[in-house]
Design a protein that fits this description.
InterPro entries: Glyas_Bleomycin-R_OHBP_Dase (IPR029068), PhnB-like (IPR028973). With 134 residues, the protein is α/β, with parallel strands linked by helices. It is built from two helices and eight strands; from the N terminus they run βαββββαβββ. It has two domains: 72 residues, Signal recognition particle alu RNA binding heterodimer, srp9/1 (2-Layer Sandwich); 55 residues, Signal recognition particle alu RNA binding heterodimer, srp9/1, CATH 3.30.720.110. Helices cover 18% and strands 38% of the residues. α1 runs antiparallel to α2.
């Protein structure tokens, strides 16, 4: 099983809440840095205690994403897209409309020769999504 792990800089909780709304997803876990037991070798600043240490969100029956916040400035990558196959045009349009808000459309969600609907969008957090409805 392969699960994409998304890295954010102080935006993971906000992004995962948007993804949960877009896909009517189930939040499996969201642990914060402040939930960790104190460790002198890994001190957590007070400002960082509410950041996400680890999150898991179930998007579809068989697909989940993972994520966390880090200190590095993560650049988005044009080489990776999260491909989501949905069984409903309505579900795809709902998620699409939420994710395109503040994002960049690479290919509009539309009928193609290989699918009822297909499209690609980079959301406002820099994550690229490909949608397919068969």
């Amino acid at each position: 099983m392969i699960k994409p792990y998304l890295m954010f800089k102080r935006e993971c909780a906000e992004a995962f809440k948007m993804y949960q709304e877009a896909f009517d997803g189930e939040m499996i876990a969201m642990q914060k840095y402040g939930d960790m037991p104190p460790n002198l070798e890994f001190p957590v600043a007070e400002d960082d205690k509410n950041l996400v240490l680890h999150a898991q969100l179930k998007l579809t029956e068989s697909g989940s994403i993972l994520g966390s916040d880090g200190k590095r400035d993560y650049q988005d990558s044009g080489k990776v897209s999260i491909s989501v196959e949905l069984d409903s045009e309505d579900r795809a349009k709902k998620a699409w409309n939420i994710l395109k808000d503040g994002g960049t459309i690479h290919m509009d969600l539309q009928p193609t020769f290989f699918a009822k609907l297909h499209g690609s969008v980079k959301d406002k957090y820099g994550v690229t999504w490909m949608f397919t409805v068969n």
